[in-house]
Specification:
The chain is an alpha/beta fold. It has one domain: Deoxyhypusine Synthase. Helix content is 44%, strand content 20%. Strand 4 and strand 5 form a beta hairpin. Helix 1 packs across helix 2, helix 3 packs parallel to helix 8 and helix 6 packs across helix 9. It starts with 20 loop residues before the first helix and ends with a strand.
């Protein structure tokens, strides 16, 4: 019995000048702790991409766009390394802000926040933003974008973000926008907490101050998202952080199981987060815990990498870019019909 625990020795990392990132992450599969988990994260994501007909969800939480992860997410969308995005409203708002040519700024966490308030400078740890520029973006959404939305139509967040991408396209926004990349690539974007963001309250102001009747139907979000997991051949999940996006994606497997009377749990699962499971929150709950709910398949390939996503995500994305310089996969194409009906067909693409 003792020998079964001692089969595979660790393999110390060697330093090779000019070594590729993907070769390094492969080498990290032979080390311990979160170094190995980072290597496993690349491996599991690569398995997702090699699956024959697989729909890959990405949940995006935390201030990833202000922290500089915007182009990484846009790259993953353009290469169709993900197929559906679920994001916080804040990340989408900050993406739109930069798509308009505005910036976030290198700052410091060692600063007098009272002085920042007096200068109308907002702080996200060590990143600064100009609140007066935020106000301009708020007005742009309220005055420029919202006239493109119809009164009394019950929008899902996916439909609003689609219209936002369409408007950014006509506006001539920069191509590295997450919202614009998703619009061009046919990637649905859900924002289940849209109202919990500047994007949401700017739409609200269009109703309050301009006599509009724009309606956000949150239950339509639940219906549309669960239909994806219901009709997809296979589904996989990737979580950057946790929060609402993680739970929103997890629950699609439960709802789809209720509806179809079949196991619709996710086959592959990856999370990069600093959240811990012992506090009982969904953000930190393990995939093993999720298996008890039927959210993650009992035989799923899964990995939890406990790391700062601003460190891990660029490494993982670069490693995948090297491994799949010519990516060929069956990409899901979403065809939305009346009454929230959905068909998915798979289209072979070179990406």
């Amino acid at each position: 019995m003792r020998s079964k625990f001692l089969k595979k020795p660790t393999h110390p990392i060697e330093v090779h000048p000019g070594r590729s990132i993907s070769d390094l992450t492969d080498g990290m599969l032979g080390v311990g702790f979160q170094g190995r988990k980072l290597g496993e994260a690349v491996d599991v994501w690569a398995r997702m991409l090699r699956e024959k007909q697989n729909t890959i969800w990405l949940g995006l939480a935390g201030a990833m766009v202000p922290a500089g992860m915007r182009r990484v997410i846009a790259y993953l969308i353009k290469r169709r390394m993900i197929d559906v995005l679920v994001s916080t409203g804040a990340n989408l708002y900050h993406d739109v802000h930069e798509a308009r040519g505005k910036k976030h700024y290198i700052g410091s966490h060692m600063v007098d926040d009272v002085k920042l308030r007096k200068c109308y400078v907002d702080r996200i740890y060590d990143v600064f933003a100009d609140e007066t520029e935020f106000y301009q973006t708020d007005l742009w959404i309220e005055k420029e974008f919202c006239p493109n939305l119809s009164d009394m139509y019950r929008y899902s967040s996916r439909e609003i973000i689609y219209e936002l991408g369409k408007f950014l396209d006509s506006y001539g926004a920069e191509e590295d926008s997450i919202v614009l990349s998703a619009y061009h690539s046919g990637v649905p974007v859900f924002c289940p907490a849209l109202n919990d963001s500047s994007l949401g309250f700017s739409i609200m102001f269009a109703n309050r101050r301009r006599g509009r009747r724009i309606i956000l139907d949150s239950l339509k979000d639940v219906d549309e998202s669960s239909r994806i997991t219901e009709v997809a051949d296979t589904t996989s999940v990737i979580y950057i952080g946790g929060g609402v996006p993680k739970n929103f994606i997890q629950q699609t497997a439960v709802i789809a199981g209720y509806q179809t009377r079949h196991d619709r749990s996710h086959k592959y699962a990856l999370q990069i987060s600093t959240d811990m499971p012992m506090w009982g929150g969904l953000s930190g709950c393990t995939f093993e815990e999720a298996q008890s709910w039927g959210k993650i398949n009992l035989r799923a390939k899964k990995v939890m990498c406990y790391a700062d996503a601003t460190i891990a995500l660029p490494i993982v994305a670069h490693a995948l870019g090297e491994k799949f310089k010519k990516l060929r996969r069956n990409v899901p194409v979403f065809e939305w019909g009346k009454g929230e009906t959905l068909k998915i067909r798979y289209e072979r693409r070179s990406l």
